[in-house]
Amino acid sequence: MTDPAIVASGIGKIFNRNSDNAVTALTDIDLSVEPGEFVSLIGPSGCGKSTMLRIFGDLISATTGSVEVFGKPASQARLDRDYGMAFQKAGLFDWRKVSANIELPLELAGWSKDRRAYRSQEMLSLVKLQDFGDNYPWQLSGGMQQRVAIARALSFEPKLLLMDEPFGALDEMTREHMQVELLRIYREAGTTVVFVTHSIPEAAFLSDRVVVLSPRPGRVHSVIDVDLGVRNEDTRESERFFRATTEIREALRSVEANS
Amino acid sequence: MKARFAPFWPPVVVGAIIVLGWEGVVNLFDIKEFLLPKPSSIVRALGDQWTPLREAGWETGKTAVVGLLAGVVMGALLALVISRFAWLRGSVTPLAVALNATPIIALAPIFNAWFGITDFRSNMAVVIVVVFFPVFINTAKGLTEVEPNQIELMRSLAASETTVLRMVRVPNALPFFLTSLRLSAPLSVIAAIVAEYFGGPQNRLGPFITQNASFSRYANAWAAIVVASAIGLALFAMSAVIEKVSMPWKQGDPAAT
Questions:
Q1: pTM of the full predicted structure?
Q2: Contacts 24+ apart (CB under 8 A), A236-240
C-alpha cells in the first residue's frame, strides 16, 4: 500500500452556486492522509468539517479541486466500497436485528449468509456486544447503538473509516470509554480514520494529526501532530495529553480571533 | 408479551353498562320507540330482519372491502412512483393533502352521474377515493422521510436507488402505510353507507336504513347500524392484527404505539 489514503488538492465547495445566496463552504483545501493514520478535523461550527468529510467520501462533489483515495478518484473508491461511515446518529435500521444491521454492508457486497453470520459474530465480539445480536436496536442504549454502528462500518474491512462526530450525542463517561474502544478497534482492524469532532480532548486523545479548520470560508488553519503513544484512561491525566490539548486549544483560539 | 394487547374486558364492561343504562333510561322515562328504541327492541329487529340484513350487510361489506383494497393498492402504488421523482413529489403531494382536506364524500352524487344511479360502482368509487388519499399521503411520507444519514450510509456503500428503495424506504414506510390502513378500514364502511344513501343498488345497508327510517321503523334502522358497526369493527381489527404481525421489531418497544 504505497498510495496515500487520501490526497485532496485544491478543494473548494460553493453551495447554491449561481444564485444570490451562494455560500463558500471550503476553499483551497490541501490535505493528505497516510494509510493507517488517524486524522481528526476540528474547528468552530460552520468551518465545513462535515462538508470536507462528505467530499472525501464522494457523498457530495467538490466545486473545485480533486480527491484521490488510494490512488483513484473518490467516486471510484466509493463504488469499490472502500469507505466505512459512522455518524453522530447511530442510524441503525429499526427493522433489522443488531446482527442484521452489522451485516447490511456485507449483504450489499453479496456475501453468503453463512459468511455474513460468521463475520457479524466476530464484529459483535470486537465491540463487546456478543449477546446482543438477536436484539432490535431500540433495546440497546445510545452507547451500545453507536458501537453497533461502528461494527457495521467496519464489518467489510473498509480501507478508510469516515466518522462524523460519532460520539457527539453520548454522555462524557460513555464518550471517553468509546474513544478507548475505538482506538482498540482501529488498531485491531488496521484501518485509516478521518474523524470529525468539535471536542478538543477527543481530537487530542485519538489522533496522530489534528487538522484545525477556520470558518467562512473553511480552510486549513494548521495541522498539529500528536504523539501520545499507547493510550489508556491514564493518558488523559498525563502531561503530554495536557500539552496536546493546549496546543489544539491555542490554535482554535487564534482561529476565533481571526474570524 | 403481556402488554401486546390491552386487556379486552374494561371496554366490554363499560359497553355493557352503557347498553343496560340505555335500556333502563328508555324504560324509566318512557321514551317513545321512534325517538330511541330500546337495545332489546334492536336485538329483536336484528332477528326479525336477519335475512334482508344479512344480504345487505354482505353487499355493503363487499363494496367496502373491495373499495378499501383498491384504494390501498392505488394509494401505495402512486406513493411508490412519487418517491422516485422529486418533481412529482413537489407538485402532487401538496395537491393530495389539499384534496384530502375536502369532503370527498360529497362526490357521491357526481359518481352516480358517472357510473349510473343504480350501479354499485358509484358507491365503490366513493370508497376508493376516501381510502386512497390517507393511504397515499402517509405512505409517501414514510417513503421519503428517511433519516438523511441512512441514505448517506447506503450511498457510501455504493447502493443503487432501487436497493435504497427496497432496503430502506419501503421498510421505513411500512409503519406509516399500516397506520393509514388501520385508519381507513373503518372509513371504508362509513363511505360505502353514506354513498348508498345517495344511490346505487337497493339491497344494501344504506337504503335499508333510509327506508326503515322513513317508515318510522327505527328499531330496524338501528339493527342495520349494528350490522354496519360490526363490519367496521371487523375490518379495523383485521388491520390492527396485520399491523402487529408484520412489524415484529415493534413488539415491546415503548416508543411504538
A1: 0.85
A2: A236/A176, A236/A201, A236/A205
